[in-house]
Structures are given as C-alpha cells and as structure tokens.
Design brief:
The protein is mainly α. 61% of the residues lie in helices and 4% in strands. The longest helix is centred in the N-terminal third of the chain and has 28 residues.
Length: 197
C-alpha cells in the first residue's frame, strides 16, 4: 500500500513538473498572443530624431544620472548640433561636479558656440564665458587644460591673465559692462608687457 502511494506521488510530481515546463515554454513563445498589444507603445512624443539620431529628455528624469553620463550626453548633443540640449545637460553636469575640469571645458565650449552664433552678442553671456575659461586656466591640474583655457581667453578677450595676476584684477580688465556691445578678440584695455605668461 505504501509503495503504491509513493509511486502515485512520484507520477504526480513528474506530471506537475512537465505541466509547469510546458506552461513556461508556451508563455515565452507567444507573449503577444497572451496579451494584446499592450507592450507596443508609440514613442513619437518621447524622442526626437535629429539626422537619424534619436534623443530624449527622459534620460534626465531617470533616477540619478552621474555627472560623467551627463557630460557624455552633452558631448553627443554638441556633436549632432543640438546646442540647447548640450547646454542643459552640461550645466547639470557642472552643477553636480564643479571641480570636474573636463565637464567645465565642454560647458564653456558650448556657451562659446552659443555666443558666437548670436548676431548681437550678449554681454552677460560673454562675461560668464570669460569666468568659465579663467576657472579652467587657473584651476586645472593638467597643463594642456590650462593652456586650453588660456588660449580661449586669448581668443575672446585678446589678452591672457598675467602669470602672477590675481583673478579679480584680470576680470576687472576684460569684463565688459552689461550695456556695451561685445567685441570678440579685442582687449578692453591695452596689455602691459609685464603681464605676459
């Protein structure tokens, strides 16, 4: 009697396993038949196509993106010509990691592109860009980054900060009043020979 009962339990377990395996296989093979088309979604409202590259603002809303991920997204946006998007993500990247010089360089480049595209250049934006490049030139750890900051300052203002010149003194020399037009590459005051780098 005990043997019959054990044999019956064994058959039941084998049948149950086989049934579960078949049910799992059927569920994996035809999920679209089991559920209508709920898993298909129109994404036209989410992403935008720009020269074949689909972009979306959902990245900024997903969890906590890192400053490096934002910097990469900004670099990609600059590469495809979406300057507004690049400025948005690069600004967030700099806010998250203010000491990240690579992110600040990318942000300053995007701001500079925006300034150069303007017909009537904004003095506030110009002054902000000068401060960004001065930060890069003075605070970068690597010489190539410092030189990049200094060369952008030279291109925008027509002068560089002196080797021992304080930041406030340099800014007083090159920043323009907010009601004056901006002239790129022209020094606002003549450069002294003692201010060479």
């Amino acid at each position: 009697m005990k043997e019959r009962r054990m044999a019956g339990e064994k058959r039941f377990k084998n049948t149950a396993r086989a049934t579960l395996l078949w049910a799992a296989a059927i569920a994996c093979i035809a999920p679209a038949v089991a559920k209508d088309d709920d898993f298909i979604m129109d994404t036209d409202g989410i992403g935008r196509s720009n020269n074949g590259v689909v972009t979306s603002d959902q990245f900024l809303e997903l969890g906590m993106p890192t400053s490096n991920a934002l910097r990469l997204e900004g670099e990609q946006s600059m590469r495809i010509g979406n300057l507004d998007r690049a400025l948005t993500v690069l600004q967030r990247s700099v806010e998250m990691a203010p000491m990240d010089i690579d992110g600040r360089i990318m942000y300053a480049e995007a701001l500079e592109k925006k300034l150069l595209k303007q017909k009537k250049r904004d003095p506030k934006l110009y002054n902000f860009i000068i401060k960004q490049w001065l930060y890069v030139a003075k605070k970068a750890e690597f010489a190539d980054q410092q030189m990049q900051g200094a060369s952008h300052l030279q291109g925008l203002t027509g002068t560089r900060p002196g080797r021992w010149e304080k930041e406030k003194k340099f800014l007083a020399r090159v920043l323009v009043p907010e009601d004056e037009p901006v002239k790129i590459g022209h020094p606002s005051a003549p450069k002294k020979k003692s201010e060479d780098m």
